[in-house]
Amino acid sequence: MDTLAGVALPAARARAPFALNLHRLRRAYSLLAIVALWQAGSSFGLISPKVIASPAAILAAFWALLVSGQLLGNLAVSLSRVLIGSAIGIAIGVFLAVVAGLSRRGDEIVDPPLQMLRTIPLLGLTPLLILWFGIGELPKIVLVALATTFPVYLTLVGGIRAVDPKLIEAGRVLGLDRLGVVRHVIIPGALPAALVGLRYALGTAWVTLVVGEQINADRGIGYLIMDARDFLRTDVIVVCLFVYALLGIGTDAVVRLIERRALSWRAELPQ
User: Fold this and answer.
1) Residue by residue, what is the 3-state secondary structure of 6-20?
2) Which of 89, 108, 167, 235 sits CB 3.0–4.6 Å from 145 for a disulfide?
3) What is the Cα–Cα distance from 45 to 15, expressed in whole angstroms?
4) Mind listing the pLDDT tens digit for each residue in 45-96?
5) How far apart (Å, rounded) are the C-alpha atoms in residues 136 and 178?
6) Is the pLDDT reported for residue 1 higher than 60?
7) Phi and psi (nearest 5°) for 248?
8) Angstrom distance (rounded) from CA 187 to CA 180
């Protein structure tokens, strides 16, 4: 019986990668079928290029933008806006979350105005930002910073408050002072929630930048979208949207990698 079990286990393990690859192939086939139908509909005139360009036209537009340098140049501008704005917003969100999460008085001072600001649509602030800071880079960076502040703040405050009080008490019994409790107990306990907030914040940053770059912009991926809209270039619009999607997936993948490394002590975390 033990021999049969020993033979069955490797066989099951051998079948698992095959089943996984088959599942991936099926998903790829469905996507390829959609693209093929899309191309066929465009080729036979069933789908107007004014509605959406064909996959072949989109690939041609991507190559033209890449060779001309327009795509990479505007991509660098958008990336710098997101990095600067996100860095500012994350730093502010972490600072305010620590103040509100570790102190009841800090919570009473910080949380009410932030909750009020959080309910204001960011796009509604755009006219004020233009009036305050002009039409240059600063309004776009401020918009991204505001978009990233609130997710980081909310998730980190929740993570700090969710730390088991028994763990805090155990740290004090072991001789940790307040700073030691924060460093060795509260920060590790709140880190999972903070990383979730970081993923959400970076995704929100790209969504916000899409809109911010379409308002009084002369550079960036959003500017390319607006310029393409004026000339009815749906192929360029789709290329830019695809670039936005890749950037969002890329930043999320970076945070997931950090999450795996920083939370390797969690056995239940998928690798």
Assistant:
1) HHHHHHHHHHHHHHH
2) 89
3) 45
4) 787 878 888 888 889 989 998 898 888 888 898 889 999 999 999 999 999 9
5) 44
6) no
7) -65, -45
8) 10
pLDDT at 63: 92
Report d(CA 143, CA 87) in Å as an integer: 12
Nearest to 143 by CA among 127, 165, 155: 127
Token pair of 13 as six digits: 């393990």
The answer on pLDDT for 267 being more than 70 is no
Count Cα neighbours of 61 within 13 Å in the Cβ-side half-sphere.
Answer: 21
C-alpha pair distances (Å), 222 with each of 142, 202, 267: 16, 17, 41
Taking only the tens place, the pLDDT of each residue in 224-266 is 888 888 888 888 888 988 888 888 888 888 888 887 877 766 6
Long-range contacts of 229-238 (CB under 8 A, 24+ apart): 232/50, 233/53, 233/61, 234/49, 234/50, 234/51, 234/52, 234/53, 235/49, 235/53, 235/57, 235/58, 235/60, 235/61, 236/61, 236/65, 238/52, 238/53, 238/58, 238/61
Helices within the chain (DSSP H only): 2-43, 55-68, 70-102, 104-118, 122-133, 138-161, 165-173, 178-181, 187-212, 221-230, 234-262
- In the chain, the amino acid numbered 268 is E
Separation CA 227–CA 214 (nearest Å) = 9
Residue 4 has pLDDT above 80, yes or no: no
The residues near 271 (Cβ < 8 Å, ≥ 6 apart) are 260
- How confident is residue 7, by pLDDT bands cut at 50, 70 and 90? very low
Q: Supply 189's token pair.
A: 């306990």
